[in-house]
Amino acid sequence: xxxxxxxxxxxxxxxxxxxxxxxxxxxxxxxxxxxxxxxxxxxxxxxxxxxxxxxxxxxxxxxxxxxxxxxxxxxxxxxxxxxxxxxxxxxxxxxxxxxxxxxxxxxxxxxxxxxxxxxxxxxxxxxxxxxxxxxxxxxxxxxxxxxxxxxxxxxxxxxxxxxxxxxxxxxxxxxxxxxxxxxxxxxxxxxxxxxxxxxxxxxxxxxxxxxxxxxxxxxxxxxxxxxxxxxxxxxxxxxxxxxxxxxxxxxxxxxxxxxxxxxxxxxxxxxxxxxxxxxxxxxxxxxxxxxxxxxxxxxxxxxxxxxxxxxxxxxxxxxxxxxxxxxxxxxxxxxxxxxxxxxxx
Amino acid sequence: xxxxxxxxxxxxxxxxxxxxxxxxxxxxxxxxxxxxxxxxxxxxxxxxxxxxxxxxxxxxxxxxxxxxxxxxxxxxxxxxxxxxxxxxxxxxxxxxxxxxxxxxxxxxxxxxxxxxxxxxxxxxxxxxxxxxxxxxxxxxxxxxxxxxxxxxxxxxxxxxxxxxxxxxxxxxxxxxxxxxxxxxxxxxxxxxxxxxxxxxxxxxxxxxxxxxxxxxxxxxxxxxxxxxxxxxxxxxxxxxxxxxxxxxxxxxxxxxxxxxxxxxxxxxxxxxxxxxxxxxxxxxxxxxxxxxxxxxxxxxxxxxxxxxxxxxxxxxxxxxxxxxxxxxxxxxxxxxxxxxxxxxxxxxxxxxxxxxxxxxxxxxxxxxxxxxxxxxxxxxxxxxxxxxxxxxxxxxxxxxxxxxxxxxxxxxxxxxxxxxxxxxxxxxxxxxxxxxxxxxxxxxxxxxxxxxxxxxxxxxxxxxxxxxxxxxxxx
Lengths: 345, 475
Description:
The complex is a heterodimer.
Chain A: H1 2-53, H2 56-65, H3 68-79, H4 84-96, H5 99-109, H6 112-125, H7 130-140, H8 144-156, H9 163-170, H10 179-185, H11 192-200, H12 206-219, H13 225-231, H14 237-250, H15 255-262, H16 268-281, H17 287-293, H18 299-311, H19 314-324, H20 330-340, E1 342-343
Helix pairs in contact in A: 1-2, 1-3, 2-4, 5-6, 5-7, 6-7, 6-8, 7-8, 8-10, 10-12, 11-12, 12-14, 13-14, 14-16, 15-16, 16-18, 17-18, 18-19, 18-20, 19-20
Chain B: H1 2-44, H2 51-58, E1 65-71, H3 78-86, E2 93-100, H4 106-114, E3 117-120, E4 132-137, E5 144-149, H5 154-164, E6 169-173, E7 178-179, H6 183-193, E8 198-207, E9 212-214, E10 217-220, H7 227-249, E11 260-264, H8 265-270, H9 281-295, E12 301-312, H10 318-338, H11 349-382, H12 388-417, H13 423-456
Helix pairs in contact in B: 1-7, 1-11, 1-12, 2-6, 7-12, 7-13, 10-11, 10-13, 11-12, 11-13, 12-13
């Protein structure tokens, strides 16, 4: 029993000593913090002055006089407000003061939050060695969030490796992140074919394929409509639903037949996407299957079908009113609710 | 004959003492284990300091969120709370206030402040709840909806909100709490990083007593100058930064606070939403989610992340605090016995062993064993039945390990998060972390035993939670 007592005394004394040390550290940090606020203010003033007089030497003096951490943080914040020539001039001054090299070091040695931020800063600083540092992070960093940040930064710099390789380096677990949607949205038009090829790969992760289709639909439009039409028959409901949403944006000559068939799919997400696409494209010829979907077991599908009918204008509203006036059923209830939506009388 | 009796008394006393000390040891071991795991978790996932960075990083891919705010007799605070919620920094969200049949002018205040008009919005009646009397929208902002319904309790109101909301994620928050402007963005992060597996995320609840609050925002963080809120600051720190972070790391988190939690709607609807009439509806929901996902054999994550902060008002009087703690205890017991088949059930893996084991040791047995210990161990020692080393072992488990665990939570907070703005605050909290073990801890255990008693007697009342309101100047 004595060891319980002895250990408790030892542990609580140790915890108190550590806490006292942390309090002392905080006192020092408070003093340093006040100095850093002044330094940030000084740097901001110099940066603002630089945008007016373009005196690079004066800016460099201030940049070199403040601690590197302050220069990097305040500098990055400031350049996000600049565009064009001003932006390039400030970057040149940063480059001459060696800030990108310091950010590169942060990408290697910081904690995961700092490394992610460093990847983003390198993309903004566009230095000579940025691509090499980011490729190294994509290849070797142990955090998947940092690898994704590096991939996005590389994409911004136009140096992302082939998509299959980049995704391989991000790793399987990372390929479930919605951040990859952002990566795909930043893809340059010249590499859209690569996105399409990945979206067509049946061995790829459905979430990623669906994200690639969404990005293509928003960025490339009708150019990939044939591909979207083919993908609506994909085995994965997630991919099929994404392709139907894409088709709803681009349209396609075969859209009525494709959507009618998708409305009979076993997955409710696919049926809802088909109904939604029919509404977007204004395919009034699909009123009959849409009316049938208003009896669907899934509320989301019923709601999408009713909304699609409503988007057809007067003929659709008339149909909804007929259904609402019919015998009590799921369709009748859905139609009544949709017709009543909006400010109460 | 007498000597036989005394032998049996000594034996019984020894067994009882071993049970009490064993329960204390188990509890302390769990706490120390949690500290180690929490320290590891924090080191693996350092916080992002600036919210502007989060917006830049996640703004384009952040999923829509519905903020559900049940309100019952909140006429004093509701308008300011809603203003502060509408000003949250998140690209795509709606605020749904559910007036749960308030007897005061909660609805009227909202109608006047936001020029609400009756509105019809189709929704899926996926969860049962008391009838809705009307839906209201505001011409001033398309983000705000008010659901006016008949009284049915907090869980019932939340279920109505879940039915009405259309976003794939919803966030529950108490009507009298204040979210940090970037709290939604921070809480949504796990849903962005791992959208397929993440089904619930909890954030930190912090105590606002003493801080300067203006226009529904915490402008300056200060510690309260009253002891009771200070004691609760340390308590919350221990609960959130140590226990929840640790269990979250190993996907065994059993509680996402009802005061601030984000959930995926589909899964919550699948488990039937919040259990109406439950004393611990938040704990109940998370247990149901674990059970549902494990039964379905699906991979999932229920996470706690420390950065998103929700400010709340802590009770400042012993009477109110006692009612709150007895209610929490009844909630824990109710959930433990309702889902007892999950305890040590291999089908539920870590949740059954660690999660439920934790509830068994800390919430079910812990308070009873400790209160028994306060009385029996010194008595046995005075009677000469127990040796001094037993007394010292018990004393260390109650006091000195308690000091160590509380101070270590503070160490974690300071080493990784640094959310208390001044060194002086840390010094005050260190002192509080020590003194809370001498009196407050014992009082708390007494309230928990009282909660046990009320649970056994079937007392289902919530008790009145008198609040002075977070709005206004520094208190």
